[in-house]
Amino acid sequence: MGGTSPRAPSAPERTPLPKRFCNLERLLHAMQVRDLDGIVATSMLNVFYLSGFNSIAHKSDEPRVYAVILSRHAPDHPIFVLADYYLGSLLSQPTWIEDVRPFRAVMMPLDLPPAREDVDRFIPAGGAGESWVGEARERYVFDMGEACRGAIRDLRLEGGRIAFDDPSFGHRLGLESTEIVDGYDPLMFARAVKSEAEIALLRRATALNQRAIERTVDAWQRGMSWREFNHAYHCAVTELGGFVRDPGGMVWGHPRGGDAAINLQTGLEDFAVEPGMHVMFDCHGTVDLYCWDGGKTWVVDGEPEGDAARNARAVAAAGETLLAAMRPGARVSELQAAARATFRKAGVPDADAAVIFFHGLGLSHWDIERTTADGRANRDWALEEGMVVPLHLLYPGDEHQRIWLEEVALITRDGGEPLFSWGLEPMTAG
């Protein structure tokens, strides 16, 4: 063996996010109309949204190890409670929250008595001179519940109406005189309309996904298996600095043999990706926790032919209709009706078979409140300026007929602004 090994791609640069990028004003409005005195966020995504802190190693069903506590009556003084071992992380990703309260957590031994000096193990040398670090050190306590109860007391929220994104956590705190309500909807209401910083993060995520899809198409070779094709996408994402989750980043299943069923892949499927097959790229992943979604049809080493060409024109026309109609105030049912009318006009055999749906996009693939402040189910929700909303169009068919498009749109007064730059037509060999 001789020669040199190919050089691995250089790691994309990661830089700190803005100290605050959440839509705080919209959250305060949600709290006001719901008559909430305070809100307590303990889920990973909501804590990140409110503080900028992105925890490593913590899984969603593990005990809560952080909380952001915000009073509507003192919005400039939120309190951040977190495990002592995460304290140093705030030196790399600063937060706008100045009142940070660490607590003694799982890394500290149970066979030794707790001491206030325990927290010093987690303060890097470069952070010892920071004023907020010194204040955090003085607020160190030995239990998360104690830290949260102290924060609620200091914000004068005891006896008020507090929304928790995990109400069971609120009940475990034993706040006997406090009304505990579900905080899911006010937080999702705030997250639905993006700040300028969030829009920039979503643009970056979408661009990464597009580049990864294009690299995956370029990596295809005759005889390539579906699992190898998926792996090529995952490698492209990683090289570009993004992340996908188990079991994979590509969502649609691809039935073969004339089967027109609509299903999602499980990670267990495998088959040859053959010329002429219609691959439906619907890809999920994150960078800085902000999601990407979407893609479109790729005709492997070819172009849509016959009825498939008609279907592709119909899907592109429906996409154009939707982008023009995706203005503030438009409701999901109205958009679906407009797209279906375009399918009928395009002359497809069964316009009612077309699948047309929408969701919000941000830190999740929903970011929409389930129930409005007046108690109504928010099923047929309305678009608002500043939302980021993927539009989904599928005209079903077998492996040579199906046409899929998922564009991601920023909602503006002039309609939906597409975040992908490649247009609405399928990708082809040409």
Radius of gyration: 25 Å
Going by CATH, what is the homologous superfamily of the largest domain? Answer: Creatinase/methionine aminopeptidase superfamily
Mean pLDDT: 96
Query: Rough shape?
Result: globular
- Low-pLDDT windows of residues: 1-5
CATH class descriptor name of the largest domain: Alpha Beta
Protein model, in words:
- The protein has 430 residues and is of the alpha+beta class.
- The protein has two domains: 24-192, 3-Layer(aba) Sandwich (Creatine Amidinohydrolase, Chain A, domain 1); 196-418, Creatine Amidinohydrolase (Alpha-Beta Complex), CATH 3.90.230.
- It is 29% helix and 16% strand.
- It has helices spanning 24-33, 44-51, 131-138, 144-154, 167-172, 184-192, 196-219, 226-239, 307-325, 332-346; strands at 38-41, 66-71, 79-83, 99-103, 161-164, 179-182, 278-280, 285-287, 290-292, 295-299, 355-358, 388-395, 403-412, 415-418.
- The strands form three sheets. Strands 4-3-2-1-5-6 form a six-stranded mixed sheet. Strands 7, 10, 11, 12, 13 and 14 form a six-stranded antiparallel sheet that branches.
- Strand 12 (388-395) and strand 13 (403-412) form a beta hairpin.
- Helix 7 crosses helix 8 (226-239).
- The chain is globular.
- The two termini are 39 Å apart.
Keywords:
single chain; 430 residues; alpha+beta; Creatine Amidinohydrolase, Chain A, domain 1; Creatine Amidinohydrolase; 2 domains; six-stranded mixed β-sheet; six-stranded antiparallel β-sheet; 14 strands; disordered N terminus
